Amino acid sequence: xxxxxxxxxxxxxxxxxxxxxxxxxxxxxxxxxxxxxxxxxxxxxxxxxxxxxxxxxxxxxxxxxxxxxxxxxxxxxxxxxxxxxxxxxxxxxxxxxxxxxxxxxxxxxxxxxxxxxxxxxxxxxxxxxxxxxxxxxxxxxxxxxxxxxxxxxxxxxxxxxxxxxxxxxxxxxxxxxxxxxxxxxxxxxxxxxxxxxxxxxxxxxxxxxxxxxxxxxxxxxxxxxxxxxxxxxxxxxxxxxxxxxxxxxxxxxxxxxxxxxxxxxxxxxxxxxxxxxxxxxxxxxxxxxxxxxxxxxxxxxxxxxxxxxxxxxxxxxxxxxxxxxxxxxxxxxxxxxxxxxxxxxxxxxxxxxxxxxxxxxxxxxxxxxxxxxxxxxxxxxxxxxxxxxxxxxxxxxxxxxxxxxxxxxxxxxxxxxxxxxxxxxx
Length: 426
What we know:
The chain is α/β, with parallel strands linked by helices. The chain folds into 2 domains: about 5-115, no CATH class; about 135-410, Rossmann fold (3-Layer(aba) Sandwich). It is about 40% helix and about 15% strand. The protein is built from 16 helices and 11 strands. It is elongated, with a radius of gyration of 23 Å. The termini are far apart. The relative contact order is 0.12. Mean pLDDT is about 90; it is low at about 90-95.
């Protein structure tokens, strides 16, 4: 079948309109078997006219993502190659990258929908989409808890499948590309403990403790007494089980608690690993003050967070990440993070781990794809699709330098002076 006038050719035209590109970055295969687009491009399969209707009502990233999560679009072959083709048109993981359609664009999309019998009312979003994310920006504890539950309470078995036995859901620290994910994650946990200067009997507050992996390592290897807090009921349940199984119930306490509600300081050290992304710019000052007040004079804070590194932040509440992955979350730059921390702390060290997160994310995607059928059984196909898309897209964004991840070591003034050199933790 020739391309001209086929269903696939019309789809390719609609995609190029949505992307604001001269042509589709993908080869398109339509539900009728027709194909159109560059012969050597990655293949995108459009399985239903419903995908076109989604693009008419949400012409941009959100429409494409909804169609993919709902199974109306498939990425066949290498997910990284498919997304890299989108990167070449400047559309991947760049807030507000999709152009606002002109009246002429809307008319053209409407004509395409009519020709393909895809005209109709707006399709309901897939159930994996978080409703009304703008409300979360107020960062009230109850709203933050709902956002956290959306992301983390999707089944501990699903996370164990993707993350592996360490159950660490943040950037690993790799000696080289052959290190292996599990070894790299243990290395990260140990690096955090060394940076904090943990020693037997010290009290550690682990803010956003996840499934308890850092708490277990700090108690077992460094003799620390740990309080781990999370807003995820499923995380807390498994973290407590792991603590009991390790025989460390006397050293580790796991709470379902907001960091703003902790009142049993002072602590000798505080870790915040992959949690500040949920805090957002508006609450960053309160976050810094709260952790400062919970820390003993001279105590150290290890703040580990993803950073926006692609120029001025224009975070979009209608993006894929905001609607499906981290509702209410926000990434700020490393400079803004350090500025906020310096209002109350002395900065001792900053370590950039951007390349490490690329390796970590690719390893997670590999585990997910190798056990795809099991992942679908555990969390549903839509959720598995969300995680595949978000981890692969983020890996490419880290690789391109659009995102960074940094460990900032800070100390509350007073108490013992900081070390002269970093020899104790490098």
